[in-house]
Design a protein that fits this description.
The complex is a heterodimer. By secondary structure, chain A is mainly α. Chain A has helices at 3-17, 32-36, 40-54, 69-79. Chain B has helices at residues 87-94, 106-109, 126-134, 159-168, 201-227, 240-250, 261-275, 320-336, 409-424, and strands at 8-12, 22-28, 35-36, 41-47, 50-55, 60-65, 71-74, 78-84, 145-146, 230-238, 281-284, 287-290, 296-298, 300-301, 307-308, 311-312, 339-340, 349-353, 372-376, 380-386, 389-403. In chain B, strand 14 and strand 15 (307-308) form a beta hairpin. Classes of the chains: A mainly alpha, B alpha+beta. At the A-B interface, helix 1 and helix 3 of A face helix 8 of B.
């Protein structure tokens, strides 16, 4: 998967939870939960969506590595088989 | 036209709790001649609480479909009839469970119907739905208002997509969805120019739906505050053990198996309620009636504003993992509009959870005819004195709002302390 494809996948996962969010609305370096107003259930659903779309399993200990859009992008780039 | 008798039962626009005056039939999932069994989802209706999957309470064959979508119908309007197939089903129908109350309000509002519903005296929601229907003079049971056909058909789309489609007068059946199972997402909708966004009866109808959710909340909460003598008690509950247990349990778990604190809280409430059943039930006709089951309503805030309060059934009988799956399930369906009619009517107590980004405490308003609601604040890190030493601790303020007609302060205090005790041993939940 190429960078722009992963980016599209990430956006799809976010919009599944928060359909009104567009990429230009959010600061890619800030905490995604604050940027998109996600509660803990929303965030979990976002991770489940990402796993469905990419196969990458993100567990609680990975949370600090994936808490912004950019960090998640880098994490997925590294881990997508 | 057949009148309802022992063999033929009417399927009516259900009342899903406080102040629902009408609902919009969006789609039938059955047709004439189809066999159905109790609990099957037979239609999608758009209500004050979003799109709802409407269940049937009888087993039999659909003998008549009386209204075609998309149409707005007052609560109690006969939408279809079902012919019962077996004698045993007839008996089941005659002694149907409390959910039956969602189908009975027509008794008072639609005098042309000759129905006999034995549960009328025991149905917990009965008095609330009837009184609210009586205060809704705008209902015209004789001329259902036909609205636009946009959004009709067997498409998967969230309420917000349906709303936009209605506003823009888009036909969703002609749009290819890019979401799961072909669900239509917002981005699938074509851009429309401002000129196309003319005010139509459809968009008025839709803004009415949003307004009506506000109206439903207003009516239920006003009724509650007018009639229920609330009192409030709060206890700071130490959650360090529970949080440590969660951390360890979740360490390597895939997100779909991840357990949130809410699951532990729900389980602990259910377990504690088995010892304090006086908090679990309904106040009706000037007396308290215990609920036989523990169905816990969960307040879910919707992104577009407003809230829904679907129940998780039999929480006392679920494991923590099952409770978590049930939470995920209702929150997903609460937000994409596939709650079942029974889930919105049969909660015996309610909880509201502020989450990490909320407030320290929440003193909630009881949802009538229930007699208690429990509010969970956000977790606070705080030092505590243990044997003269300062230690880190994580606490949550848990507030019980209770109906003083049924519950006294001492009982409330015992309940909260028992709940706290329950949460100290998360491994036993």
């Amino acid at each position: 998967m190429k960078n722009h494809e992963i980016k599209a996948v990430l956006l799809t996962a976010i919009q599944e939870i928060a359909p009104e969010i567009a990429l230009e609305d959010i600061d890619l370096d800030e905490d995604l939960r604050d940027e998109c107003d996600l509660d803990s259930m929303d965030f979990l659903n976002y991770l489940i969506e990402i796993k469905k779309l990419t196969g990458v399993k993100i567990t609680e200990k990975d949370y600090p590595k994936v808490n912004t859009f950019k960090k998640m992008l880098a994490h997925l780039e590294q881990n997508i088989a | 036209m057949d009148r309802e008798n022992d063999n033929v039962k009417e399927i009516v626009m259900p009342s899903l709790g406080a102040d629902m005056a009408e609902g919009m039939l969006v789609e039938w999932l059955v047709k004439r001649g189809d066999s159905v069994k109790r609990g099957d989802i037979i239609a999608v209706i758009e209500t004050q609480k979003g799109a709802i999957d409407m269940e049937v309470y009888y087993t039999g064959v659909i003998s008549e479909i009386l209204h075609e979508p998309v149409v707005t119908l007052p609560v109690g309007t006969v939408m279809a009839r079902v012919e019962l197939t077996e004698a045993s089903d007839r008996e089941v129908a005659a002694t149907a469970a409390p959910q039956m109350d969602t189908t009975v309000p027509e008794i008072d509002t639609a005098p042309q119907m000759d129905t006999t519903v034995p549960e009328i005296d025991t149905a917990p929601q009965m008095d609330i739905t009837v009184s609210e229907i009586n205060t809704a003079p705008q209902i015209d049971t004789t001329s259902p208002q036909v609205v636009t056909a946009a959004g009709r058909g067997s498409v998967i789309a969230s309420p917000i997509v349906r709303k936009v489609a209605l506003e823009k007068r888009l036909d969703l059946t002609s749009i290819k969805g890019s979401g799961p199972l072909g669900a239509i997402l917002l981005r699938d909708l074509p851009e429309t120019t401002k000129e196309m966004r003319v005010s139509t009866s459809a968009s008025k109808q839709l803004s009415g739906v949003t307004k009506s959710m506000r109206g439903a909340i207003a009516a239920a909460m006003t009724k509650s505050k007018n009639e229920i003598p609330h009192f409030y008690q709060s206890l700071d509950i130490e959650l360090s053990n529970a949080l440590a247990w969660l951390k360890k349990t979740n360490e390597d778990r895939s997100p779909e198996l991840h357990i949130l604190l809410l699951a532990l809280l729900l389980k602990a409430v259910a377990k504690t309620l088995t010892k304090y059943p006086d908090l679990n039930g309904f106040y009706q006709a000037n007396q308290f009636v215990h609920a036989e089951e523990i169905h816990i309503g969960n307040v879910i805030s919707l992104r577009q504003g407003g809230l829904v309060v679907p129940a998780i059934h039999h929480v006392d009988k679920l494991s923590v993992d099952e409770t978590m799956q049930a939470i995920r399930d209702i929150s997903a369906r609460g937000r994409n509009g596939h709650l079942r009619s029974s889930e919105l009517t049969d909660a015996s107590i309610t909880i509201t959870n502020m989450g990490e980004r909320g407030t320290d405490s929440v003193f909630a308003v009881i949802y009538p005819p229930q007699v208690a609601i429990i509010g969970f604040g956000k977790i606070r890190k705080t030092p505590q004195l243990v044997d003269g030493e300062l230690v880190n601790s994580e606490v949550m303020s848990v507030c019980l709002s209770a109906d003083h007609r049924v519950i006294d302060g001492m009982l409330g205090a015992k309940f909260l302390n028992a709940l706290s005790k329950q949460l100290q041993k998360p491994e036993l939940l």
